[in-house]
Amino acid sequence: MKKLLLLLCSCSLLFAKSDFNQYANQNRELMISPVSVSMGGADLALNSGIGFSGSPSNLPFDSVNNLSLSYANYFQNTYSSSILSYSGPADSAGGISITGGYVYIPDIPDNRASTITENNTIVYQEDIKNCSDIFVRVGYGHRFGISKKWDIAAGVAANARRTRLIDYSGYGLGLDAGVKALHKKSGIAVVLQMDNITTHYTYWSEGYQESAYPHLRLGLGFERAFQYVYGRIRVGYASTDLLSNDGINSITSELDTNDQEVETVEYKKVYENPELLITDGKLGIEYVIMNRLALRFGVAQSKLNFGAGLQMFSNRAGVDFAYTMHQLAGTYQVSLMYRW
């Protein structure tokens, strides 16, 4: 433990030379499963822990091997993401995961080579470019048998990424960590998750490097099988960043000089505005019917999410679907899963 703390402190001192950016690592939010998407990301204390919205402290609670492939399409083919994940037991008390993700942004018009003639006519020279983002995440979680009433687990996940823009490429490294407590009798789970614990350093060039701020989130979950409804119910809650490092998190309205109502954005801190735990929190529910059909619904910052899942072949294979409503255009995501 002392060596781990020394390593984390050394990384923090090294990365402190870079510029901090509240939006430096936001693309990681695209690397989540349809199950999490349909529940609005509220399943922090319930999910498998393989995606970037999950906690590695969840990994030791699943005793089977899982392989999944997901695809998401955003804003009517503007860009897409693909995720390939594996999770499984590492030993009797531990679990591991390996996740690879790819974000593809096609057909970006580059008109910088265009020229203007003497008659002020623009001669367009359009070149179509593509951009991409590659993510890799490796996690490990371990469960500790220190209580008869509670299961206690802790986990860490190392993240690597390569972002390719039109003219530049960036390479990043980071580390997440979390702890989980599961009450054996009631099915209530509590997770405390810190993302970017090493501030996720990204190297762009000798002249510019950036680091993402850490995020601390609280996750609550409840899971119980009910015979009289022929299924299992899971309810989850995930808080906003308790460190208030998410950037702009509030929209208000005010009157301009013409007495017209206009929207303005604000940056609020949780410790000064505790109501953000409710207004910016995520809430989701899942109802699994006879271990075959799952119906899911979630709310996150006024955005509605819903989805479904179907288990087949004695629960060895399955398909999941999620849809997120948005004022620009809705987003759908599908995945295939195999367990053994």
Structure notes:
There is one protein chain. With 340 residues, the protein is mainly β. The protein has a domain at 2-216. It has 3 helices and 21 strands. It has a 14-stranded antiparallel β-barrel with strand order 2-3-4-7-8-9-10-13-14-17-18-19-20-21. Mean pLDDT is 88; it is low at 1-16.
Characteristic key phrases:
single chain; 340 residues; mainly beta; 14-stranded antiparallel β-barrel; 3 helices; disordered N terminus
At a glance:
With 340 residues, this protein is mostly beta strands. Helix content is 7%, strand content 55%.
Strand elements, count: 21
Determine the N-to-C terminus distance: 34 Å
Overall 3D form: globular
Q: Biggest sheet, open or closed, and with what strands and sense?
A: 14 strands, antiparallel, barrel
The radius of gyration is 22 Å
- Low-pLDDT parts are 1-16
Structural class: mainly beta
SSE layout:
Blueprint (H helix, E strand, L loop, with lengths): L1 H14 L3 E3 L12 H5 L27 E9 L4 E13 L2 E17 L4 E2 L5 E2 L3 E18 L5 E15 L4 E15 L4 E8 L5 E5 L2 E5 L2 E12 L4 E8 L11 E6 L5 E6 L9 H4 L2 E8 L3 E8 L2 E10 L4 E8 L6 E9 L1
